[in-house]
């Protein structure tokens, strides 16, 4: 883990980036190769399918805009999971936190009228993010005060969030008409799209940089990482471990909630049940593909976003069901997690101190 | 006794083991004769474990041959070593605590009476026979976790004998024993060799080597640097072979000049992780400018005492005052800030963050203070500067502040902790097992630093399971047994024998 800035160490820093990226890259290539075999078996032409996929993701500014749009919540969901990982926690509750962020942002978006954009949009975004933070802090507090594992409680809280938001959108906050959804947000609350380029994407990039800075340049980040790597040493060093665990989960939830809020304010324009399904879970794939590095989350999310953006083009041009994208995504996750297989295939020696250990949270 | 005219039961010829970038064993030749106790001396990292792991089939040699009882063997797993009569007793026992002695002994080679049903009666009988034959008193029906450590070790030896081992490898067997228990083990070892069992005894304790070995082999940096006979050796000559230079085994210090009391403990009660009472009414005082050593077999409340007074463990009853302040319910941070330095017992568990750089580890107790941080923002250039100064001053190797702590040897890891803890203003130093498992050179260095702290007027509390360390460092010796301080002796009255008896619970 290189946390120091040392301008004369540039070549070795490039080497470090290359070493860190080599396994995920190899995993993606292997996943695409295995995906190609599956396409062949199902009677499709993998080259045609993949080129349609690429066209759908990058073929035009509209396509590229769609990729950025898809990547935006993935970046934030990935950051949420990666951040919690650095604190030694496995946040599987990104989905629930994201839903709370989405519906609270919608509530602030449609519930208030007459505010100028400069206040309304940031307010809706902040309230959505804070809703995610609060919802993330719950499993943190449960872990601290009762010892309940966050892996279990975050999964449970996902169900509560799904059903609670569904009920809000089909009950108290229901729009007129038969569709279960909230009213549309006020124009002043909307995150704009410049041409085809969604502004929310830049907010996500900003969040990635801020997350990195928080982790590696602040005392809070040092405390979070210390707790994550060795909570005994953290306690010995005088760090309040219980407080840090709750804070880590809250920040993780903040990031996921922000993903939901941007999706509401920048893409959907209201809260609509089912629209965000699975976004929070994709965060786990992204975080692992990025090897839990906050900056690595951006390219990882772009890759998955591109695949999702291009999948309908692929279905249309090459007559390949879009579910193949889920298969490839699962294969990527498989190869990243089972990195010893990849190392064996591409002959990369394991580097010390950079392993992502999934098992720590399971205790 | 010279047993070199007896048949050779185990021989290593030119054994070499190479790991990426490391030559762990370099062309090692070793002979073990029937009924012989061969002591293998060496510092941590000298290659003792690598050598033993090759002889036990855990590692495959890069080069060289292993001969067992006149036969060249290729051991690819421990099972093959066991089949040839090699048994190993690891430093950390491989026993299942909730199971009985007999169950543990037969584990992996269970006796069944048809249809997979265990024949416990037969197993118990077998264990009883073995324990009588070799004088290893142990009750086959006792549950392991209820047994003292010395007895658990006997179970490990019986386990090996049960598998028909006649070549025993004992890895640091005395590390967890009282001097009396160690003497009992030596008696068992001699009984075993009288019945033609051959023993390789790995240790770094020089006294023990001279007491029990028939022959001594010394390893240094992966090479067998020589063999010696105990009758021709002294502790000093062996230490020099081990380290490769002159070493001072005795801690050189002047008489202490105690000042005001810095640490005052009154009627302290603390429980352990399982909720059992671990410290039951301890009263202690440590004065400025003196070293109070706490002797005792591990597990008699020392760990809980240290954790309680550094704020890491909840205090059930009693009072602790540090430098006049009541710190009974202080947090670890508050206690550190009073000027308490703490060398923790388990350096990898508490003292260091393994995947952190040396720089980051060296500010673990002060990362939040200027100049290392201003407000929330950390200043890595200042953190690196601090690291560079300390690495140089404390001779940490490699001298690279960006190296990860996990890549350092035990002695250097300990030096990182010592450097960090000694470089803050200190009134009270709590050092738990300060030199456990590290090389002689580092021990010498750390002992000197501890004495230097004392001479600067720091009150020092040293807790060690190594009796020699306590006797060498302390100005006063407190002996802990069963959660209590059973006696406090001035160093002049603290003889090995007297303290050893007190450690075993007999009030001499």
Helix content of chain B: 25-40%
The CATH topology of the largest domain in chain B is what? Rossmann fold
The number of domains of chain B is 3
Largest sheet of chain A: 2 strands, antiparallel
Class derived from helix and strand content of chain B? alpha/beta
Keyword list:
heterodimer; A: 363 residues; mainly alpha; ABC transporter involved in vitamin B12 uptake, BtuC; two-stranded antiparallel sheet; 2 strands; globular; disordered C terminus; B: 508 residues; alpha/beta; Rossmann fold; 6-stranded mixed beta sheet; 17 helices; 26% strand
Short summary of the structure?
The complex is a heterodimer of chains A (363) and B (508). By secondary structure, chain A is mainly alpha-helical.
Describe this structure in words.
The complex is a heterodimer of chains A (363) and B (508). Chain A is mainly α and 363 residues long. Chain A folds into two domains: 10-44 and 320-355, no CATH class; 62-306, ABC transporter involved in vitamin B12 uptake, BtuC (Orthogonal Bundle), CATH 1.10.3470. Helices cover 71% and strands 1% of the residues of chain A. Chain A has helices at 10-41, 46-58, 61-86, 94-111, 117-146, 150-170, 200-217, 219-229, 231-236, 241-268, 279-289, 297-318, 323-337, 339-346; strands spanning 193-194, 197-198. A two-stranded antiparallel ribbon of chain A has the order 1-2. Chain A starts with 9 loop residues before the first helix and ends in a 17-residue tail after the last helix. The model of chain A is unreliable at 1-9 and 351-363 (pLDDT under 50). Chain B has three domains: 8-243, 3-Layer(aba) Sandwich (Rossmann fold); 249-339 and 426-508, 3-Layer(aba) Sandwich (Rossmann fold), CATH 3.40.50.300; 346-424, no CATH class. Chain B contains 17 helices and 22 strands. Chain B has a six-stranded mixed sheet with strand order 6-7-8-3-9-10, with helices on both faces. In chain B, α14 runs parallel beside α15 (440-455). Chain B is globular, with a radius of gyration of 24 Å. Chains A and B meet through α8 and α9 of A and α10, α11 and β18 of B.
């Amino acid at each position: 883990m290189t946390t120091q800035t040392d301008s004369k160490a540039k070549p070795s820093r490039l080497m470090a980036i290359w070493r860190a990226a080599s396994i995920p890259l190899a995993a993606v290539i292997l996943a695409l190769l295995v995906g190609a075999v599956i396409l062949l078996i199902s009677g499709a032409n993998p080259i045609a399918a993949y080129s349609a996929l690429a066209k759908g993701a990058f073929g035009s500014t509209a396509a590229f805009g769609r990729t950025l749009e898809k990547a935006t919540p993935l970046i934030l969901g990935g950051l949420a999971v990666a951040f919690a990982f650095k604190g030694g926690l496995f946040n599987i509750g990104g989905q629930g936190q994201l839903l709370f962020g989405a519906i609270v942002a919608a509530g602030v978006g449609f519930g208030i009228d007459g505010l100028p954009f400069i206040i309304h949009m940031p307010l809706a975004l902040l309230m959505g993010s804070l809703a995610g933070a609060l919802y993330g802090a719950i499993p943190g507090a449960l872990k601290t005060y009762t010892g309940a594992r966050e892996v279990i409680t975050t999964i449970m809280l996902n169900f509560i969030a799904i059903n609670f938001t569904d009920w809000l959108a089909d009950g108290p906050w229901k729009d007129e008409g038969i569709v279960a959804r909230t009213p549309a947000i006020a124009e002043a609350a909307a995150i704009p799209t410049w041409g085809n380029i969604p502004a929310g994407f830049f907010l996500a990039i900003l969040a990635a940089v801020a997350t990195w800075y928080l982790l590696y340049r602040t005392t809070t980040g040092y405390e979070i990482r210390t707790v994550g790597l060795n909570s005994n040493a953290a306690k010995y060093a005088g760090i309040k471990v219980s407080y840090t665990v709750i804070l880590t989960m809250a920040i993780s939830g903040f990031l996921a909630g922000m993903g939901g809020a941007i999706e509401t304010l920048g893409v959907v324009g209201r809260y609509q049940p089912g629209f965000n399904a699975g976004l929070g879970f994709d965060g786990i794939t992204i975080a692992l593909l990025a090897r839990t590095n906050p900056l690595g989350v951006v390219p990882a999310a772009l890759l998955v976003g591109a695949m999702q953006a291009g999948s309908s083009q692929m279905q249309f041009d090459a007559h390949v069901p879009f579910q193949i994208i889920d298969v490839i995504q699962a294969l990527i996750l498989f190869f990243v997690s089972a990195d010893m297989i990849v190392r064996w295939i591409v002959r990369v020696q394991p580097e010390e101190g950079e392993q992502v250990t999934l098992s720590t949270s399971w205790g | 006794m010279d047993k070199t005219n007896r048949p050779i039961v185990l021989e290593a010829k030119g054994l070499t083991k190479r790991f990426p970038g490391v030559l762990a064993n370099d062309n090692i030749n070793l002979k073990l004769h029937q009924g012989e106790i061969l002591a293998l001396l060496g510092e941590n990292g000298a290659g003792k474990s690598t050598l033993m792991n090759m002889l036990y089939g855990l590692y495959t040699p890069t080069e060289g041959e292993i001969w067992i009882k006149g036969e060249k063997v290729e051991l690819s797993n421990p099972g093959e070593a066991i089949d040839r009569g090699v048994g190993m007793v690891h430093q950390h026992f491989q026993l299942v605590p909730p199971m009985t002695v007999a169950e543990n002994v037969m584990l992996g080679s269970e006796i069944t009476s048809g249809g997979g049903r265990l024949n416990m009666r037969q197993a118990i009988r077998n264990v009883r026979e073995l324990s009588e034959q070799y004088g290893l008193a142990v009750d086959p029906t006792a549950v392991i976790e209820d047994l003292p450590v010395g007895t658990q070790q006997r179970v490990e030896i019986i386990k090996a004998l049960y598998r028909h081992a006649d070549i025993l490898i004992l890895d640091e067997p005395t590390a967890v024993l009282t001097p009396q228990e160690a003497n009992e083990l030596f008696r068992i070892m001699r009984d075993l060799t009288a019945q033609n069992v051959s023993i390789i005894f790995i240790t770094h304790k020089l006294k023990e080597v001279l007491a029990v070995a028939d022959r001594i082999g010394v390893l240094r940096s992966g090479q067998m640097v020589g063999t010696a006979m105990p009758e021709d050796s002294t502790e000093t000559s062996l230490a020099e072979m081990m380290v490769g230079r002159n070493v001072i085994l005795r801690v050189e210090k002047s008489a202490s000049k105690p000042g005001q009391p810095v640490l005052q403990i009154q009627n302290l009660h603390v429980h352990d992780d399982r909720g059992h009472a671990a410290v039951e009414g301890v009263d202690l005082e440590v004065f400025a400018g003196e070293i109070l050593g706490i002797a005792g077999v591990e597990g008699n409340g020392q760990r809980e005492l240290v954790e309680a007074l550094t704020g890491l463990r909840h205090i059930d009853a009693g009072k602790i005052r540090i430098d006049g302040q009541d710190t009974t319910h202080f947090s670890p941070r508050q206690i550190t800030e009073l000027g308490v330095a703490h060398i923790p017992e388990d350096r990898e568990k508490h003292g260091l963050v393994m995947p952190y750089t040396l720089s980051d580890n060296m500010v673990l107790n002060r990362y939040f203070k200027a100049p290392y941080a201003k407000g929330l923002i950390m200043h890595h250039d200042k953190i690196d500067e601090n690291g560079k100064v300390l690495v140089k001053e404390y001779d940490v190797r490699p001298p690279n502040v960006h190296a990860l702590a996990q890549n350092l040897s035990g002695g250097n890891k300990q030096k990182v902790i010592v450097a960090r803890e000694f470089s803050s203003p200190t009134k009270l130093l709590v050092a738990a097992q300060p030199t456990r498992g590290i090389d002689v050179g580092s021990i010498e260095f750390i002992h000197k630093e501890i004495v230097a702290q004392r001479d600067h007027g720091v009150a020092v509390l040293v807790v060690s399971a190594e009796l020699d360390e306590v006797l060498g460092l302390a100005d006063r010796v407190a002996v802990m047994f069963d959660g209590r301080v059973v006696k406090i002796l001035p160093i002049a009255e603290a003889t090995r024998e007297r303290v050893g008896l007190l450690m075993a619970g007999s009030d001499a």
